[in-house]
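Field reference: sequence -> structure
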Amino acid sequence: MLINTDLHLHSCFSMASSKDMVINNIAPQSKLKGLQLVGTGDGFHNGWLDMIEESTTYSGDGIYSHNDCDFIITAEVEGKNKIHHLFIIPNIEIAREISGELVSKNVDSDGRPRVKMNGNELLDLAHEYDCLIGPAHAFTPWTGMYKTFDSIYDCYGSKKDGKKVDFIELGLSANTDMADTVKELKSFTFLTNSDAHSPWPHRLGREFNQVEMEDISFSALKKAIEKKKFKANYGLVADMGKYHITACTKCYTFIDPLIAKENKMKCECGGKIKKGVDFRISEIADYDTPRHPDHRPPYIHLMPLAEIISLVVGKGVTTKTVQNKWNQLINNIGSEIDILIKSDIEDIAKIDLNISKAIESFRNKELHITPGGGGKYGVISFEKPLNTRKTTKTQKYKTLDNF
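Structure field:
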């Protein structure tokens, strides 16, 4: 069976997360999005585990269900060097045991515990309890594994010792084409997850994985990751990521990485410059162009439907205008994923002609994207007004060539 799954998000207990990030909100929004299996996030926070147990029914083999949405216990940990690691955990009992072993002052004050353990130690701990582990958003400049290390084995242990994580999470500012220029990653399964801090449709499931699984269970997911049964990675256009381009974190000006280095990563405005994911990958890349291994599934670009509607109507994604139009489309056509990827454009046009043209442009890769950088997401726009633009299936995404 094909399963759409988003395995990395956060609960109401994580810093900077919405108080609406509770099971009763996440479950229905996940179904509207088109997800069948969702990571709980914050799986080492005992208060959150209590809420999961109170809000779900245990279906067995690591699956906790609420209103036709299945959850699996996941957690993000900040280890040594402020590197973030993603755990996929067999069940709540094991999550509580591991939580007791994490020497952290904030294990129950923040959904993402901060520990002094390095990647090698966390990998050993995860595998001791039959968990899956890998670097979270591996390339991002603040907390990604590659911000500190040039090799994944420098972080998690020697390849000669058989030390190997179970997956690589790409993060919102990277994609398969970028990651597959790094030779050492060819044997790993890539995950694309939302890292959502709120349950609303422009955040939850903005990146997800389509996986061939025997059933919905921890064992089946583990087997699918080990046997590389991923059928597709769905994710944002990497340019949209808020750390894609090297830029100032204060004024968001794009800055040539070499000039940034000469200026000791300080912008003339006084702000700090953050190295872009695109440049960081170029520093560690072995190939000029991607070399995809045979097991690598396609990477399919996704754009939150609410953001497309927002662009069309000229209102913010959380406004009633946008949310009412989003609900109208969902109620009449189907899940957001289906609307974006495969629903008949004519059916969408019956609801709203301009939105149908915008979705067609998204599918045909005709959106203009101003890249993100320095902590600011990229911005999408149209080259021409919707009512005068003619679509073509040969036009490519247009991005900034110079900055």
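Note: The chain has a mean pLDDT of 92.
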